[in-house]
Amino acid sequence: MNFLKKITIATSIAAASFVGNAYGQNFQWKEAQSNGYTYKYVTNDPTSARYYTLKNGLTVILSPTNKDPRIQTYIATKAGSKTDPADHTGLAHYLEHMLFKGTDQFGSKDWSKEKPLLDQIDALYEKYNKTTDESKRKQIYKEIDRVSGEAAKYAIANEYDKMLAGMGADGTNAFTSFEQTVYTEDIPSNVVDKFLAVQAERFRQPVLRLFHTELEAVYEEKNRSLDDDGDKVFDMMFANLFPNNNYGKQTTIGTIEHLKNPSLNAIREYFNNYYVPNNMGIIMSGDFNPDEVIAKIDKAFSYMKSKPVPTYNVGQEKPITTPVVKEVTGPNPESLMIGFRFPGATTKDARLLNLVGNMLANGQAGLIDLDLVKKQKLLGAYAFPYLLKDYSVLLLQGKPTEGQSLDDVKNLLLQEIDKLRKGEFSDDLIQSIVNNEKKAIIQKDEKYSSRAGILMDEFTSDIDHKTSLEYVDEISKLTKKDIMDFAARYLQNNNYVAVYKRKGEDKSIVKVDKPTITPVSVNREDQSPFLKKIDEMPENAIAPVWLNFDKDISKNKLGNVEVLSVKNTDNALFRLYYYFDSGKWNNKILPLATEYLEYLGTKNKSSEAISKEFYKLASSFNVSAGNEETYVSLEGLNENFDKTVALFEDLIKNSQADNEALNAYKARLKKSRADAKQNKGIIMAGLRSYAQYGAQNPFNNVLSDAELDALKAEDLINVLHDLFNHKHKVLYYGPKSGTEVVASLTPIHKLPGSLKEWSKTKTFTQIPTDKNKVLFAHYDMVQAEALWVRNADQYNSSITPTANLFNTYFGGGMGSIVFQTIRESKALAYSTYSYFSLPSKKEDKDMIISYVGTQADKFGEATTAMNELLMSLPKSDQLFETAKSGLKKTIASERITQDGIIFTYLKAQRLGNNSDIRKNVYEQAPKLSFGDINTFHDKEMKGKNYTYCVVASQDKVKESEMQKLGEVKKLSLQEIFGY
């Protein structure tokens, strides 16, 4: 349950908005009837989507595909933060949270006794909302807390999550954005009846129970956003792009003042206004018969009554005629964001904006990719269109390298915009983008989940599906002059907003203070009659499908190199990998060499020319060197297989040393390394590695500054040229057979007579967790994050079924013991989890990992709460049976396909397993008793030592609090990072 992460998903939203199809197809809206229902569809639609409008106005979009026995579902409401009342911002988001709490039929053990108490809470919140005197507010809140505790005695926490978990659902969640609130589930295809029964009840008349603890979770979410410089930059950008429109006037998560003064009446009114069938859609893609499913949806949701939706007034924006420049400060590295405003998502100009975004940055051959990234003029640079209903936005982002100012970054980004206006781009760039869009269409159609996501985004943004399908045809007809005219109209040198992200203390932050909350009952053992009724509904069992590594994978030889392949019978895409059983542990400069390759050319081709050529082929490559494994991956259209492989092999074998590129790379790497020390997530990763392996660990196994300075271009080139002389495997998924792959590769992938063994120069061994200790790293933040790490015993495959069931029961989701206790009952963390981790290779040890992200002033309470769970496993027969049922159904409906088959095989090899381990889990986990997992808990967790990795502000978390956990060691960034 979250408000949509804006920056990170902007690109995917834009890409998903325009699906396209094979070039030259004829798309027409048609109408048809089947099983008594009329629906619309678009001819030649690769998603085979049917569009129904039920009598009450509910939109239903069904896209059947039987590749996996599962269904991705979205229930979407066309209402989000832009339709929040001005005096109750954040309301759509916390209503989203409350729609997991149940109705009078589920979520309550005794509704007749619970309701009067909830009515009292309603009245108290209204009184609290209207009171300004702080002492009186505290008295009222104390009464809210007391009555909430009484009401909670009749509530059954997470009953919704338990029902869905028992069905074998994955991805139980929801998100709120500017103009959509969407509830998402991925369900086995045999539980449609159960799923629809629960959803129909869920939206009938939701009860706002357990409100004050859930609101505290929203407070936590708000505080996390205050620690996120990216969120602050985005909010500042939209506030200045849209001073009159609600995109900029109010944020999705809301203001602190409004969060602290909620009104349950306002929430209920919002639900009644916007959660009406003519404003909602049910989108499903997966394994089902649409004739049957539409009848079931109609029956389940026919109780909903259509009603007018409140008129939304689009705040009209005046043209920006002078650059608007703003600043944001925070602990993260400096960066710059530039934003241009465009028309809304349904317009032709928005579709053209999507193309322009690709022309600027597509990861390979865009203007920014070639001019700023390839030439290493910036540490990082991106462009992405963000398409919304009222307006759209083009966002450019850049990070300075050493010695650059943010003004330098701005000028470099604006120069690329200037090139669009002047037509200074390759004549064939548009056609290359068209080719890559065609490939993207095939990729999106591979998975039922991506189909559903595309259709859902179109629905909430009012984008016509036929228009989306025509996108490739539309852009293929554009000329260079069309792009130049478009850029001249919208991308001028004075009509943008620029947000400078400066490094420093943000003194404007006012966090949401921790209210006094008495832990509430979660009534784990109770079940509503509704849940029992759902459980008793019949379902046809799905038979599991296990991998047979001897039959499912073709095994061939290319010289003395093993070739593992799986045939793609669905489409014309291929993925090829060269897999090396070695990485950074054996050669610290290997990952640097693979990154350096991105900036190199050959004797005959520049780096930029190679990138353009890959992009023309609608292909790409990536070289990734991990600690103990290295992958070279190539992907593209099968018709271009030989050309793609030959192009890459020529590059890696004939790359030329480039000292200018190396010097730029070193400068960028040093800046990147310095920036990593300002990233709390990376710091926590360093602490975790320190806890696992000690002071010398894989995380800080890097070149020192002196070693980096001494590095020569020839050192890196020699590593690249020598790579294929070492032992490796070839992995392939695509239309070719194993013998055809070998035949194609034989003239291209030339091999020496014998391949070298990888020298084992460095081995890291997990250290015993022999005492309780705290590894602390200071970071200027509102929140505090704590990660428990314990190295356990060496891998033993026989415990896999027990470990899987234990994780599902204990810390694996919103219905788990950990989540229910720490978040639902005690409101101590927005994010929390705990699990027993099996290693990736048989020589390594199992691990216990636990986490809480909490407010700094709740650090002591939160860590105590987790430690209590690690000491004693609460028993819930009902939750345990749900965990067993859900685990079995999830495995039964899981299908490992495509190249996933090969990677599963390699993982099994590393662990010393000869067969699909899921079969053991499926057969053995249902036979386990609670006593079995309790014994497992006691053996692995109870009374054990832990290393606590803590990232927090030393001014907000007292050392005395940490000393209660163990011996405190404050680590410097030098100790963590190794440079």
Structure keywords:
single chain; 979 residues; alpha+beta; Cytochrome Bc1 Complex, Chain A, domain 1; seven-stranded mixed sheet; six-stranded mixed sheet; 26 strands; 18% strand; globular
What does this protein structure show overall?
The chain contains 39 helices and 26 strands. It is 43% helix and 18% strand. The longest helix is centred in the first third of the chain and has 20 residues, at 111-130. By secondary structure, the chain is of the alpha+beta class. The strands form five sheets. A seven-stranded mixed sheet has the order 1-7-8-6-9-5-4, sandwiched between helices. The protein has a six-stranded mixed sheet with strand order 15-16-20-17-19-18.
Biggest sheet overview: 7 strands, mixed
Strand proportion: 15-25%
CATH architecture grouping of the domain at 49-313: 2-Layer Sandwich
Strand order of the biggest β-sheet: 1-7-8-6-9-5-4
Summarize the structure.
With 979 residues, this protein is α+β, with helices and mostly antiparallel strands. It is built from 39 helices and 26 strands. Among the domains are: 49-313, Cytochrome Bc1 Complex, Chain A, domain 1 (2-Layer Sandwich), CATH 3.30.830; 549-745, Metalloenzyme, LuxS/M16 peptidase-like (Cytochrome Bc1 Complex, Chain A, domain 1); 773-977, Metalloenzyme, LuxS/M16 peptidase-like (Cytochrome Bc1 Complex, Chain A, domain 1).
